Amino acid sequence: SFLTGAAKLVVVIAIFLLTFYVISQVFEIKMDANLGHIFARSALDAAARSTKPPRYKCGISKACPEKHFAFKMSSGAANVVGPKICVEDNVLMSGVKNNVGRGINTALVNGKTGELLDTKFFDMWGGDVAPLIEFLKTIQDGTIVLMATYDDGATKLNDEARKLIAELGSSSISNLGFRDNWVFCGGKGIKTKSPFEQHIKNNKDTNKYEGWPEVVEMEGCIPQKQE
After folding, report:
1. Contacts for 58 with CB less than 8 Å, ≥ 6 apart
2. H or E segment and range at residue 31
3. CA terminus-to-terminus distance, the chain
């Protein structure tokens, strides 16, 4: 009976050891799998960090060269979402800032420092063109001028206002029409036409929104004014 007891004990110990071995194997595998997962995660994170595109000022697609100001702007969306103007990572005008309105939205920036000088909007549907003309006449040489339409930017425009905006470097202002979408960046004292302009006509056959064309967006690098 002693032998039977001893045999039973051996069997119990063997089962215990076997169970322990199996459990330890499972846990080791689990541990290894977890460690593997952790290492894989950190490797993936590192790869993601290295492939994540760097963020440039105003969210533009590539960095501006030295002595240039980064800008990004968009026209309004129908009569619902206001335009947005950003220069050097500063949002100058937007619906969130609550400083935009129907008509032509205008931001003036110092051409040497990139600092904001003024923002104003001029209602070209229910307003009067005279304040816009006065404003345009007071702009100092060397000032960067950014303009974006919202809802309608053209109904009240007259030849004098169009001429003053053309002198800032605009090519499209002469044929800007009712509810067209338009964004423009030019400057007072510019000697050429500005390369920074987007214009889309209001056309019921191609409009994205019922009575308005799609939003126009534009980004770029404005050369800093040198002495």
Report:
1. 70, 71, 72, 86, 87, 88, 89, 219
2. helix 2-51
3. 110
* Other CB atoms within 10 Å distance of the CB of residue 204: 8
pLDDT digits (tens, 9 = 90+) for 141-197: 999 999 999 888 889 999 999 999 999 999 999 998 888 889 999 999 988 899 998
86 phi and psi, to 5 degrees?
-125, 135
- The residues pairing with 199 across neighbouring beta strands, listed in sequence order, are 182
SS3 119: strand
Q: Are 53 and 200 in contact (CB under 8 A)?
A: no
Structure tokens at 104: 């032509």
Measured CA to CA in angstroms, residue 96 lies from 20, 81, 100, 120 at distances of 64, 10, 9, 15
Determine the residue type at 146: L
Span 71-95, mean pLDDT? 87
Tell me, what's the pLDDT at 52?
66
- Please list, in sequence order, all residues whose beta carbon lies within 8 angstroms of the beta carbon of residue 87, skipping any fewer than 6 positions away: 58, 69, 70, 71, 107, 109, 114, 116, 144, 146, 222
The C-alpha angle with vertex 85 and arms to 76 and 221, in degrees rounded to 5, equals 125
Q: What are the Cα distances from residue 118, in Å, to 70, 135, 139?
A: 18, 10, 10
- The per-residue pLDDT for 16 is 76
